[in-house]
Amino acid sequence: MTVRVGVIGAGWIGTEHIQRLTHTITGARVTAVTDIDPARAAEAAEPVGARVLPDGAAVVAADDVDAVLVTSWGPTHAEHVLNAIAAGKPVFCEKPLATTAEDCLRIVEAEQAHGRRLVQVGFMRRYDSGYRQLKEVIEAGTIGEPLLVHCAHRNPTVPESYTSAMAALDTAVHEVDVLRWLLDDEIVSTQVITPRATGKRFGHLKDPQIMLFETAKGVRIDLEVFVNCRYGYDIQCEAVGEEGLVRLPDPAAVGVRTAGRHSTAVLTDWVGRFRDAFDTEFREWIAGVAAGDEPTGPSAWDGYAATVITAATVEALETGAVVATDLKPRPARYGGTA
Ligand SMILES: NC(=O)C1=CN([C@@H]2O[C@H](COP(=O)(O)OP(=O)(O)OC[C@H]3O[C@@H](n4cnc5c(N)ncnc54)[C@H](O)[C@@H]3O)[C@@H](O)[C@H]2O)C=CC1
Ligand SMILES: O=C1[C@@H](O)[C@H](O)[C@@H](O)[C@H](O)[C@H]1O
């Protein structure tokens, strides 16, 4: 079966995913595209032979759409995801699931009322081979019980529109999700420390930031978010356990020796760093939809948890306090007991 996908939001990542679904993934075809900017929708739709539809509701309702991909701006995600659930169609939503905890819970409740999972959230790091190896090592018990995790998330630059809150909401949100998954543990508190700011930033921005998370089992996580680090896009993660440590590998790169120097390139953006992870994420999602299976990737509950934890981190940044994350009890459908 070819899964016919309707796309809501034909901006940067929407266009990337349309290309991916068309040229990289087998078993999928993009049949409908919408964007509040119709010219953008047409530009993305025409090369892949898709129709342009007037809005997200039309995409969800279309007879030639089996599954929905939401890649519009964050504050619009909840409406489109709720429409897809109401129509009983599988929906892949780029992060964040929604920008408020209330909207995330509305989605969780709608999905539970529907009776089976339809929603997958676009936290692609769970599909990165390095993170998957890290998880295997941790689960095998090779490093003993994890005690500490040291992480860094560095971008070379960000535009002036990037705010201090986005360090948590837009950037650290990936670590929040992948660490909950890696450790099979919940983040219960968050704190932010702001060291000396880099001179290479727009003046309004607190950069770098150090985020300190504590999990329910007592694991301590420190995360450096540095979005004007200049030198490249650099993702680091090292888990320290009772018996040893395990470190995320750097992406493979050739070593060059010349003129008395030995060097390896550092990637400069997340597109290259996580290209294979995005491909695997969509390959597995499409295969699941084609088979009629419930999605196995990041769930609506994971989207809710990430939104609550990153909002608490913004509060921690603004108040200087240690902030409890205060998640609701996890329902049984999402692996909890409530
Ligand atoms: N997983 C990842 O690593 C990444 C995820 N993202 C997420 O993807 C989403 C989109 O980001 P970008 O593509 O970078 O933004 P963008 O601004 O390039 O594209 C968003 C598009 O959505 C359209 N749009 C907004 N509201 C709409 C609505 N209600 N209906 C139809 N179209 C609508 C806009 O006109 C725009 O073309 C964001 O939620 C962002 O956080 C973005 C980059 C990386
Ligand atoms: O999602 C992403 C961006 O929105 C964000 O701004 C970057 O910091 C992340 O690395 C990237 O994966």
Average of pLDDT: 98
User: Count of helices?
Assistant: 10
Helix percentage: 25-40%
Named CATH architecture of the largest domain: 2-Layer Sandwich
Net shape: globular
Give a count of the beta strands, DSSP E runs of length 2 or more: 15
CATH topology of the largest domain: Dihydrodipicolinate Reductase, domain 2
- The computed structural class is alpha/beta
Q: List low-confidence stretches.
A: none
* Total count of domains: 2
Radius of gyration using CA atoms only:
20 Å
Distance between the termini: 36 Å
SSE pattern, N- to C-terminal: EHEHEHEHEHEHEHEEEEEEEHHHE
Q: How would you write the strand order of the largest sheet?
A: 12-11-7-10-9-8-15
Name the CATH class of the largest domain.
Answer: Alpha Beta
CATH superfamily of the largest domain: Dihydrodipicolinate Reductase, domain 2
Report the portion of residues in β strands.
Answer: 15-25%
Protein name: Inositol 2-dehydrogenase
Domain Gfo/Idh/MocA-like oxidoreductase N-terminal: 3-123
Subunit structure: Homotetramer.
EC number: 1.1.1.18
